[in-house]
Amino acid sequence: MDSVKYLLPESDIPSAWYNLVADLAEPLPPVLHPGTKQPIGPDDLAPLFPEALIEQEVSTERWIPIPEEVRDIYRQWRPSPLFRARRLEKALDTPARIYYKYEGVSPSGSHKPNTSVPQAYYNKQAGVKRLSTETGAGQWGSSLAFAGALFGIEVLVYMVKVSYNQKPYRRALMETYGARVVASPSEETEAGRAIIAKHPDSTGSLGIAISEAVEVAAKDPETKYALGSVLNHVLLHQTVIGLEAEKQMAMAGDYPDVIVGCTGGGSNFAGIAFPFLGRKLRGEAEKDFRIVAVEPAACPTLTRGKYAYDFGDTAHLTPLVKMHTLGSEFVPEGIHAGGLRYHGMAPLVSAVVSRGHVDPRAYHQLACFEAGVTFARTEGILPAPEATHAVKGAIDEALRCKEEGRSETILFNLCGHGHFDLQAYMDYHAGLLRDHEYSSEEVAMALAGLPSVG
Ligand SMILES: *Cc1c(COP(=O)(O)O)cnc(C)c1O
Prior knowledge:
Layout: E1 5-6, E2 16-18, H1 42-45, H2 51-58, E3 63-65, H3 68-74, E4 82-84, H4 86-92, E5 97-102, H5 113-125, E6 130-135, H6 139-151, E7 154-160, H7 161-166, H8 168-176, E8 180-184, H9 190-198, H10 206-219, E9 223-225, H11 232-238, H12 240-251, E10 258-262, H13 267-281, E11 290-296, H14 301-304, E12 306-311, E13 320-325, H15 347-354, E14 359-363, H16 365-379, H17 387-404, E15 409-414, H18 422-429, H19 440-448
Parallel strand pairs: 5-15, 6-7, 6-9, 7-8, 10-11, 10-15, 11-14
Antiparallel strand pairs: 1-4, 2-3, 4-5, 12-13
The chain binds pyridoxal-5'-phosphate.
């Protein structure tokens, strides 16, 4: 029987998240205070996050139990399906077997509710009344708005102004879930007012919106801050993806030779890859495999950035973390994969790349949209612009297998659908999209502003 979908029952939703930190040979470099540049303690993070999330952020435990209330909500869309891309394989005429885990089945259409739900849960437990956050294209904002609605927490979203004006449908979704959405930079915060005073026409950036959301949380004892990627606890929550995929690959009687994910802040990539990588680090993997992280050439954090201490935001309110970065001043080209336009990378993903466990790779957006269209015309699902990077990575691996005459197994994460991103596809079909290659001078200039840490 040639199965296309591998489906798990609700009872197979993982009961614990997997923490890669437990299996690293060396610990992560410490997080530093932005002022003193000394290692920070859990207390320094208390104004922003509830204790339970701070504990997860610094935990070295391998398994962290998922609360029953969270598992119960996960049942709305989890376990997500694993597909064998038989029609794509046929179109590519490849001997490779291609599988994809599809996270677009969640209510907001991406992997992000895997973490927005537990984040809202722990904040509710701590008595928090309101969550503030930033969003670029709106994927994270709508995922947190959904979670806020379930737990009765107010959600305040600073949305990058250019997206606020250009993407009214994501905003409508957030407002339908009950969130308040503010165009950033705004007059509501000091960080926002400072930017507007300097640049009255600023169309905003993720770094600015983070500064606004962090400021609001730091000043209001009833408000905490929520981040949709980058942090250890966010990557932890996303491991439900890979934990389910392990079981589904076993159902298929197969095991990956290559695992592919796209990287913006690193969370969906970590979600699919870390449970497999953990087994490898513990010497328990069925066989050896490669892991490929795909990023946009217009924001080449892993392939051309530096592994160094940097700030997470523009106003330099966040702690310093060691990560691959293009510099907090870096403003990437306005490519359509909005979720991949971040100057930094998750410290955990950066660490495993620098330690040689992951091969990073960058693609231009035109090639990615072409792959996305091929995928839509064979498998039927329209990938989010971010997800087309993973699709392109998987297709390239499959074509390599064809050239080499090898029937390898490729697993990739299809992290979201593109139903809110049709303008991007319209622009692609109309020939309006361009590729942008950064010169070495531009990259060097952006990196020159990195903070010096002794
Ligand atoms: C937010 C987002 C991303 C980028 O974030 P990661 O933390 O790197 O996963 C990628 N794809 C989709 C669909 C997103 O919504």
